[in-house]
C-alpha cells in the first residue's frame, strides 16, 4: 500500500474539510459506542473476562515459539501446509505461487487486514489473477479502488448515497428504475453478482482472527457469511495470519471470542464464527482440497521483549478507534497505512518505522479512552509516549519543538522560577484577553490557534489553585 503517514497533518486537515466524510463519521460512530456499552452492561463478568483475555495473550506471547510450532505441527497432521514468511515480499510470493500452481484465474477474498498489509490484490492483478472482495464493504471499496478506513467496518467513511452512486457507476447494466432504498438492497444486488464469482473461484483467501495451537485450526468471524463461501467452495483455501494470532487451546479461543464481538460490534457473537481445520476429508460433503496457512512476521518478532510487546495482544476489535476523538474527527485514511486509530499509532511505527510515521503517536489527546475500552487492556497511551520518546531521541521532531521543550525543561528544573514565570504568563494572557473569552491567534501559540481558539485563562495557575484547595481542606 502507498504509505502517506508522513502527510498525516495534511491528510487530517483535508478530512476535516470533507463534509461527506464528516457526515459518515458522525452517523456511524455513535452506533458502535451505544451497542458496545449495552453489550458490556449485559455481561456482569466482562471486566473479569478482560483480565482473562490479557493473561491468555501474555502467556501465549511468553511462549510464542512453542505455540507456533505446535500449531504448525497440527496443521500438517490434518493435511494442511504452513508457510513461514519473514517479510511481506515472501508472503506475496508464497500466495502467488500457490495460485499459479493451481492455475487460478479468479480468487475470492474474505476481509483480511493482513492482505491489505501485503497489498495482495495489486500483486495478484499484476500477475493476471483477478481477486474479488466478497465482504460488502470491501466489495464497494474495490469498485472505488480505495483501501479500508476501519479494521472491522472497511467502508466506515462512506454514506449510503456513496454506495449507491458507485454501484451504479460500476454496474452499467442496472435498470434506471432499480431502487436502493437501504443498504440491504445493495447487499442483495451484490450477493447476486458475487454468487457466480464464488462458484468460479479456484482459490479462496481469508484472514484469521485466531489460530488454535491445540487443533491446528484457523478461526474467522463474519456477519455476512462470505467468509464461509470463500473457504469452502474453491479448491484451495489460503488463510493469511500474523504470528501473534495464535492461542493455545479451543477454550482460550472461546474466551477471546466472548470479548471480540462485544467490543467490536456490540454483539454477543458474530453471526458466523467459523473454525477451519485442514482440507476436507473423505466423509466431508464440501470444503477445500488443499489448506494453506501463510504465517507472517513482517517486523512483529522485533517487538518481542520491547516496550511495544503488549501491542501484540491486540485482537483487532477496533474499540480503540471507535472511541478515539482524533479518529472520530479525521477518519482512517488520514493515518496513511493499513492500521488507523490508536492501535495503528502504536503498531504502524513498529512495522514501518517511526521515521516515516512519527506524526501518528502524536495524533492523540491522551484522554485514555482507548486503553479503558480495550478488551485485553493494552496500554496504548503509554506506548504512544514511548514512540514520542524514540522520536525525540532520534532528533526526528522539529527543531522548534525541541527548543521549546528544552526551554520548558530548563525552567521546570528550577521550581521557584518556574512558578514565578507561569504566574506572570497567566496574568499577562488573562489581562490581554479581558472581555474576549478566547483568542483566535496569539504569539508563540500559533500551533494551537491555527486549528482552534485558545480560551482566556481564569483563576491563576494550577499550582496556585492546588495550594488554595489544600489550605481550604486543612481548615
UniProtKB/TrEMBL annotation:
InterPro entries, sorted: 4Fe4S_Fe-S-bd, 4Fe4S_Fe_S_CS, FTHF_cligase-like_sf, Helical_ferredxn, LUD_dom, LutB/LldF, NagB/RpiA_transferase-like
Top-level taxonomic group: Bacteria
Keywords attached to this entry: 4Fe-4S, Electron transport, Iron, Iron-sulfur, Metal-binding, Repeat, Transport
Pfam family, one: Fer4_8
Domain 4Fe-4S ferredoxin-type: 304-335
Protein name, entry field: Iron-sulfur cluster-binding protein
Species, as recorded: Plastoroseomonas hellenica
